[in-house]
Amino acid sequence: MIRKCDNEDFHGLLTIINDGAQAYKGVIPFDSWQEPYMSSDNLRDEISSGIVFSGYESGGSLVGVMGIQTRDGILLIRHAYVRHERQRRGVGTSLLRHLINSVDKPILIGTWYSATWALRFYEKNGFSVVPDSEKNRLLKKYWDIPFRQAEASVVLADYLALNTIIGDTSEPIENC
């Protein structure tokens, strides 16, 4: 079952984010990793900034979470994590499909460039990597992340975003 998360889910959100983020340890730049990956204060700040989480519930507990944030008419997919033992079993795909089907806005996703499994996941679900020149513009406009994270990130866009906010570019859209 997929449902919107509420205040009672805070601890579960934090646990899933930090458990799922272990996949990034040793993959993302060492100066971008911290333990825990997301602190309680960071999660509170993210929620205060407008990120709304949905969760995939199984057996009475959350096993996956994915956040959305609307900025200037664009939907950002933020903080998509699945418990380690439930990864590669359709939880992330179900959450992503649910969120995609619930909106009619262009969608952008940011993730770590070195997280090749995440890139494949989003591409398999219809997203395309945007050119670096657009990536930098989009990260500055829609995200509030540290420079180092932006440097090591990639932005993916759905078809609507490619046609409305990115438009015609001289650089071809990549598929990794």
Question: How are the elements arranged and paired?
Answer:
Blueprint: E1 2-4, H1 10-20, H2 40-48, E2 52-58, E3 61-71, E4 74-82, H3 91-101, E5 107-112, H4 116-124, E6 128-129, H5 132-142, H6 147-151, E7 153-157, H7 159-166
Parallel strand pairs: 4-5
Antiparallel strand pairs: 1-2, 2-3, 3-4, 5-7, 6-7
Highlighted features:
7-stranded mixed beta sheet; 24% strand; 36% helix; globular; 176 residues; Aminopeptidase; disordered C terminus; alpha+beta
General description of the model:
- This protein is 36% helix and 24% strand.
- It has helices at 10-20, 40-48, 91-101, 116-124, 132-142, 147-151, 159-166, and strands at residues 2-4, 52-58, 61-71, 74-82, 107-112, 128-129, 153-157.
- With 176 residues, the chain is α+β, with helices and mostly antiparallel strands.
- A hairpin with a 2-residue loop joins strand 3 (61-71) and strand 4.
- The longest helix is centred in the first third of the chain and has 11 residues, at 10-20.
- The termini are far apart.
- The protein has a 7-stranded mixed β-sheet, with helices on both faces.
